[in-house]
Write a structure and sequence with these properties.
elongated; binds the ligand N=C(N)NCCC[C@H](NC(=O)[C@@H]1CCC/C1=C/[C@H](COP(=O)(O)O)NC=O)C(N)=O; three-stranded antiparallel β-sheet; alpha+beta; 159 residues; four-stranded antiparallel β-sheet
């Protein structure tokens, strides 16, 4: 849709997408010459530049930072963390609207205070495994168990 080598990126400060040419390092708000704006819009529908997600993180002893508001020394094994997360996965299969409440109750991420809400993020912000899973989700879809250096997660895309 975009003429090579143009790419489209999201500006967090301006909260809108802009066009970037990695060769000339040019960046601009308007689409490069000859871009079909309608095709671009429908492309962006299925290839979002940013997503907003909630997550429920259970850390374990191999986590990059095995501590949280819940425990200053997290010692459960990765297998135990996965088993515990499976329990939450079952509850969410029956009632997905429980996500915020369960994240508040159990998540080892500081976002627990906001029901697990990480806000909007674009590519390059989160750890690759988390980003890959999050950008694949449809709005209101909940991921399978996702592993990252932080621990094991369930992710719900909300926007
Ligand atoms: N850009 C936004 N909104 N915030 C910066 C996020 C930085 C990012 N964080 C993560 O990838 C982990 C996994 C998914 C969420 C997340 C949250 C971590 C998990 O806890 P921790 O392992 O750090 O103790 N807590 C906060 O960062 C990273 N590149 O390390």
């Amino acid at each position: 849709i975009l003429p090579e080598p143009w790419t489209i990126r999201y500006s967090r400060s301006k909260k809108r997408e802009y066009f970037f040419n990695p060769e000339t390092k040019a960046s601009q708000w308007e689409a490069p010459e000859g871009v079909d704006e309608d095709k671009l819009r429908s492309f962006l529908e299925t290839h979002p530049l940013r997503v907003r997600c909630l997550h429920l993180l259970i850390k374990h002893k191999e986590s990059r930072r095995p501590a949280s508001h819940r425990s200053e020394d997290i010692t459960i094994s990765k297998e135990e963390a996965i088993e515990e997360l499976k329990g939450y996965q079952e509850k969410l299969k029956n009632d997905p609207t429980l996500f915020e409440e369960l994240a508040k109750e159990r998540s080892d991420c500081s976002s627990f205070k906001r029901g697990g809400d990480l806000g909007y993020f674009g590519k390059g912000e989160m750890q690759p495994s988390f980003e890959k899973a999050a950008f694949k989700l449809k709005i209101n879809e909940i991921s399978d168990i996702v592993e990252s250096d932080s621990g094991v997660h369930l992710i719900k895309r909300v926007a």
